[in-house]
Amino acid sequence: MTANPKLSLIVARAQNGVIGREGDLPWRLPSDLKLFKKTTVGKPVLMGRKTWESLPFPLPGRPNLVLTRDPNYKADKAEVFNDLEAMVGRGYELAGELGVEEVMVIGGAQLYRALMPFIDRQYITQVLVVVEGDAHFTAPSPDEWVMSDRQSGLKTAKDEFDFAVEIWDRK
């Protein structure tokens, strides 16, 4: 059992901060999706309703927790919350039960902004492209965050763009 799990987020962002366009990712990066799965599997994943609805199916191998303002909202194979604190609390509870060290925030932009003051670690895929989009994510400030790891050269023939994966920890 983990005493104090971290609250972490995972996001892919373009060089201009875009993370989404019309409810979808503005790129195809199968290699990054594999890294996403590896980073989140076995851990509670917290998301907003729009992110939930953008998924083709509930993310297997991890508890799916969804935040919405709609008190009548139903999400098959997920726990639904109308209260942010209750959702985060349930995430920590599940992390303890599962014996994992992190609760993962997986989107979208509104949820990232709401939880940023409480985030301990950021897994950021820096997609080396400038694209149009309607959802954005601000890069970490070196005043508050330190990059603890960076991997580049991850692009394969199936990936649309080059990208690097960075891990940022709160100072």
Secondary structure layout:
Blueprint: E1 6-14, E2 18-20, H1 30-40, E3 45-48, H2 49-54, E4 64-67, E5 79-81, H3 84-98, E6 102-107, H4 109-115, E7 121-127, E8 135-136, E9 145-151, E10 163-170
Parallel strand pairs: 1-6, 1-7, 3-4, 3-6, 4-5
Antiparallel strand pairs: 2-8, 7-10, 9-10
Protein architecture, described:
This is Dihydrofolate reductase. Its EC number is 1.5.1.3. It catalyses: (6S)-5,6,7,8-tetrahydrofolate + NADP(+) = 7,8-dihydrofolate + NADPH + H(+). This protein is of the alpha/beta class and 171 residues long. It has a single domain, classed as Dihydrofolate Reductase, subunit A, CATH 3.40.430.10. Helix content is 23%, strand content 31%. It has 4 helices and 10 strands; from the N terminus they run ββαβαββαβαββββ. Strands 5-4-3-6-1-7-10-9 form an 8-stranded mixed beta sheet, sandwiched between helices. The chain has a two-stranded antiparallel ribbon with strand order 2-8. The longest helix is centred in the middle third of the chain and has 15 residues, at 84-98. The protein is globular, with a radius of gyration of 15 Å. The model has no long low-confidence stretch (mean pLDDT 97).
Q: Give the terminus-to-terminus CA distance.
A: 25 Å
For the record, the count of structural domains works out to 1
CATH architecture: 3-Layer(aba) Sandwich
| Rg result | 15 Å
* Low-pLDDT regions: none
What pattern of helices and strands is seen along the backbone?
A: EEHEHEEHEHEEEE
What gross morphology would you assign? Answer: globular
> Which CATH first-tier class would you pick?
Alpha Beta
